Amino acid sequence: MITVHSGRFKAIAMTMLLSCVAIWGVASGLACDRQPAPQRASSAKTAKPVEPAASKASPRAAQSAVAAPASGSANPVASAPAAEPKDLRDGIMAYYFHRTLRCKTCLSIEGQAKEAIETGFSGELANGLLAWRAVNIETPGDEHFQQDFEIDRQTLMFVEMRDGKAVRTTTLERVWDLVEDPVAFQEYVWTEMQTFLGGG
Question: Would you call 96 helix, strand, or coil by DSSP?
C-alpha cells in the first residue's frame, strides 16, 4: 500500500501544473507575467498641445491607499468581459491593452494604473477631458487596436484623440519594472499623465 502525503503531493502537482502553463503561455505568446513590453520610442505626432484642466490639488497631493500587488506565480486567468466606457472623440484616452489569458502581474498593472488615473485625475475624468478603458485586444471588434497602435502584448498607453482619430500617443514602458512598488508606480503614471496633458 502506498501512502501519499496529500500536502506534499498537492505542492508537487501544483508546481508541475504551473510550469506547464508557463511554458505553454510563453510558447504561445499569451503569458505576460514578468514579460515587459518591447522597448520602442513613443510615437508622437505634431499636434496642438491639449490644455490641462485646472485642478485644485495636484495628483501628488492626493493620498490613496494603493494595494500592494500579489506576488507569486504566473497563474493565468481568463478575464471576464466588463462594460467599459467608449472611446472619447476628443480628449485623452488612458488605455490598458491586454489579452484574454492574464496573469497576476498583468491584472496588478491594470488595477494600479486605473487607481492612479482615478485618484490623480478625477477632475479631468469628470469633465470628459480624460477617460480610462481596459481593452482586450482579442475581443471581436477590438482587434484593430493591435494594428492601430502596433502592439502585441499588454501595454499601458495614453492617446490624444481629435475628431475620433489618434493624433499623439505615449507608451508607459516602466510599469513592468515598477509593479512591485505601488508608490513609485503611481508617481510614474501621474508624472507621465501630467506631461501628456501638457502636450509633451
Answer: strand
